[in-house]
Amino acid sequence: MVATIEQIREAVQRVLSGESKAAVVRSSQVKRTTLFKFLKATNNSEVIERKKSGRKPSLPNGVEQDLVSWIAAMQRAGCPVTRHDIMMKAQQIVQLHSGITQNLGRGWYQRFSQRHQELSDRIAQSLTKARNNVDKDGIILYFNRLLKACLAFNCSPSDIYNVDETSFKTKNSSKKVVAIRGSQSVWATEKSVPYHLTIVAAVAADGTFVPPAFILPGLTCEAVVLDECAVHDAVVTTAPKAFINAHIFNNWLETFGEWKMKHRGCRPAVLVMDNCASHLSSESTPICQAYGILLVCLPPNATHLLQPLDVSVFRTFKRKIKAAVTQELRASNSWTLPRSKAISIASNAFVGLSKPTVSSKTPTLVQNGFRTCGVWPMSLPCMLARLDMQKANGIKDTVGTESWIKTREVVREDVLFLPAKPVVRKRIKTNSEWHSIKDLHAAASKRQKRK
């Protein structure tokens, strides 16, 4: 067994205290040659440390740490890097540092990852520019509206709901599979549903699921389409392309109101939803007043941060649907899925999510979603923490915020740079009139009043 650095230091200290070298070697894990080597180092006032075996890293430790900081800063800027990007930057650094060109490959990257355990491979979620522009003021305004609605009556977790729609058809993406070594261009046949099906789901903060609603494409549907549905009170309708609109949503509001009256009596209900234009209309207000529904709209483009269904439910729901569809199509050796079977699969996935946990003390998936989003218990710090998490792109500590990291200003200046900040361009309202280049620049220089 190889002696540790602590055992070596202890053995050296015993010899310095007057014990014979032979006795120390016999009673410890330290070999004779090792003991003599470190005794000599101690007499020369050298630090007792065990040097790493093998070749030295291509980059000095300090430069590697700068590379890690650049990786974190790129993640904070919304431009996370790939393995190839890291290896290319490392090669540029080596060339600047030593003056020679050295190809760094997969082996170097594996050793680099082992030295820096804070790095890991992740799948980056694509977010539009609008979703990255959620601001603090919008979240505070939303929280105040939610607080006002809940304070209007003695609100409980059973009285606050979240509603949203999702698609039955899942987005296919590449995945890792097991194949014969040496195989090239491995592909998988895509089996998916050839039509669009919208599922409207609503859940309460206590984990209660409202029966789902299904929107099928077309103008008519089969009379037996709900016969295989696993949820007794589920409803179905049709739309030309199976997308929800204001008329269908108002009908759903009435259905939800009737369900609420049946299960919760005349108690008011707070309904959290996005502010999509396809949901609300002028007819929504009298329906909500009739059934005691208090609508609270989420901030624009913030559903991925603050909507419980998006945060905790839909991902698992869609995963269950995708697995069931693949299994059904393989078992039937078919490329088509009847609409009644699609509703059956979706309803079974719905039932699987709504089953109570083994322990009543364990929070359900839905309860965790409401708590994480700060909806129930209501928590403005939780909401703002999710916004801060997005701004930092998931980084919890201060890595990537070093003062030397600049936009384009040599290892720290010519290699590890960040993308340039976006240029804000002024836009001019033409009012259907023709403008010359002189008119455009003149209008841009004028200070526009905010409404």
TrEMBL record:
Family assignment from sequence similarity: Belongs to the tigger transposable element derived protein family.
* PROSITE patterns registered for this protein in UniProt: HTH_CENPB (PS51253)
In the record, which residues are listed under signal peptide?
none
What SMART domains would the database entry show? CENPB
Q: Which GO terms describe its molecular function?
A: DNA binding
* Protein origin, superkingdom: Eukaryota
Q: Does the keyword Nucleotide-binding apply?
A: no
Q: Pfam families this protein is in?
A: DDE_1 (PF03184), HTH_Tnp_Tc5 (PF03221)
Locate the HTH CENPB-type domain: which residues? 51-122
Q: What GO terms fall under cellular component here?
A: nucleus
Q: What is the name attached to this protein's record?
A: HTH CENPB-type domain-containing protein
* Keywords from the named record: DNA-binding
